[in-house]
Write a structure and sequence with these properties.
Order of helices and strands: HHHHHHHHHHHHHHHHHHHH
Number of helices: 20
Subcellular location: Endomembrane system
Strand content: under 5%
Number of domains: 1
Largest sheet: none
Number of strands: 0
Keywords: Membrane, Transmembrane, Transmembrane helix, Transport
Protein name: MFS transporter
CATH architecture: Up-down Bundle
Helix content: over 70%
Structural class: mainly alpha
CATH superfamily: MFS general substrate transporter like domains
Oligomer: single chain
CATH topology: Growth Hormone, Chain: A
Shape: globular
Radius of gyration: 22 Å
Family: Belongs to the major facilitator superfamily. Sugar transporter (TC 2.A.1.1) family.
Membrane topology: Multi-pass membrane protein
Length: about 450
């Protein structure tokens, strides 16, 4: 009797393509929301009479919201299912975007962007868990990497749309700029209608009959529960018990490498014109440089997306941290160099950091079991955004007190910390099924194998 084909070995289908678009839309909105404030801030500050404190705290407000959204979104997604929480983010995007049009104070703008950040934080665990639990294993890495690519595409769109609105909208252009997110939020809500619940999550809750109906609906009438190689989760499994069983090191790895990869990126995005001006790029050089660097981030992520299955997760991550860190070191050393050289090094950083960026969503979704997958992604999102928020807030002060050179050296040091952590703890999960990738029995640097039986009993 032949062994039934696993749903992880099926061909990439129209359903998978649509689900990638549905989940990736949240990443696009994320990039747009976090970047658009930098464009609008030139008018926001004088219009609302913002102090330097309020400029920094508003720039970091969405990142602070992501911290809370990630924690709550992951827990809610694991408890109530992927499908219900899938619409929370788009709804918050729509409401907060509309409200920003009528904002009258720094406090109100902070609150609305904080709520938008909560929506973004919720998006990470629900969208990625939803996607990874349906995808064939050969498509898992590239599709999850595509979500990061869409983040940078959203950021690039924010720069282009924001600049266009700011140049043609008059004194209230900043209001239209901040409210422009509502269009994307509405589209995201609409395209997500009709998405089925994850069969893996249903099985983890003992709802096998519902899971089988969805399996047949998605993969065909010849498929059934036999084609989804998972075991029902033990009633005694909990997030805390799994972390103590050996997944704690994996949580440390995800949180640290994610944090080290986002701090310099968010600092650059929030204050790109100011950073470039500190490097003596003024006027058109600074404006065009911001757009060029953003587009190079997209190119870097696109290249990494193509390489994630070719060179493997671990090697891609190590090379990404190494070469992007060297580019930041060069920026610090060449701080008084020519404009062309400065843009070249910034461009090199943008290209090389793409590997670490795309793996932010690949690793946590592959190395944790279904019972805690969304929660782990949520915690990784939250903890990484603490560092990103602090880094974003401190950039203006760092530029004013220790200068651009030392600021770049600090950014390089953070990147090299990510390199060391990844060398120590990063596993290789390329071409593995979700069951094997999330199993502690798979040999990988720095990760314990002593609790493999617990993993095998859990619902991967």
């Amino acid at each position: 009797m032949s062994h039934p084909i696993s749903v992880e070995d099926v061909a990439f289908s129209r359903f998978h393509r649509l689900l990638t678009l549905r989940s990736g839309g949240g990443s696009f909105v994320d990039g747009y929301v976090l970047s658009i404030i930098g464009i609008a801030m030139t008018q926001v500050s004088p219009a609302l009479g913002l102090t330097a404190f309020w400029e920094g705290i508003i720039a970091a407000s969405a990142l602070i919201g992501i911290f809370f959204g990630g924690f709550f979104g992951g827990a809610l997604t694991d408890r109530f299912g992927r499908k219900r929480i899938y619409f929370v983010g788009p709804t918050l995007f729509i409401v907060c975007s509309l409200a920003q049009f009528w904002v009258q104070s720094g406090e109100m703008l902070f609150t609305l962007r904080f709520l938008s950040g909560i929506a973004i934080g919720i998006e990470y665990p629900v969208a990625t868990a939803f996607l990874v639990e349906f995808l064939p294993k050969k498509s898992r890495g590239p599709c999850l990497a595509t979500l990061t690519l869409l983040w940078f595409a959203g950021a690039a769109t924010a720069y282009m749309v924001g600049e266009a609105i700011m140049q043609s909208g008059g004194a209230d252009a900043w209001r239209y700029t901040l409210a422009s997110t509502v269009v994307i939020g509405v589209l995201l809500f609409i395209i997500r209608l009709g998405t089925p619940e994850s069969p893996r999550w249903l099985i983890s809750k003992g709802r096998q009959q519902e899971a089988e109906v969805i399996i047949k609906q998605v993969y065909g009438p010849e498929f059934s529960l036999r084609n989804l190689p998972v075991q029902p989760a033990s009633k005694h499994l909990s997030f805390k018990s799994l972390l103590h069983s050996g997944y704690g090191k994996r949580m440390v790895f995800v949180s640290l490498f994610w944090t080290c990869s986002v701090i310099p990126v968010f600092a650059v995005y929030a204050f790109a014109p100011k950073v470039l001006q500190a490097l003596h790029l003024d006027g058109n050089w600074a404006s065009l440089g911001s757009i060029a660097i953003t587009l190079l981030f997209v190119v870097g992520c696109l290249i990494a997306t193509k390489l994630v299955n070719v060179v493997g997760r671990r090697k891609l991550l190590l090379h990404s941290f190494l070469w992007s860190g060297l580019a930041l070191l060069a920026l610090g050393y060449l701080r008084d160099g020519s404009s062309a050289m400065i843009l070249l090094m910034f461009g090199a950083y943008a290209l090389f950091i793409g590997g670490a960026q795309v793996l932010q969503l690949v690793y946590p979704n592959e190395i944790f079991p279904t019972a805690i997958r969304a929660g782990a992604v949520g915690i990784g999102t939250s903890l990484s955004r603490i560092g990103a928020a602090v880094g974003t807030y401190l950039v203006p002060m760092s530029l004013d007190t220790i200068g651009i050179g030392h600021t770049m050296y600090i950014a390089a040091g953070i990147t090299f910390v990510g390199l060391v952590v990844s060398w120590w703890l990063a596993p290789e999960t390329n071409a593995m099924s979700l069951e094997d990738a999330a199993s502690l029995s798979e040999a990988s640097p720095g990760l314990s194998e002593k609790t493999a039986p617990l993993t095998r009993r859990s619902n991967i």
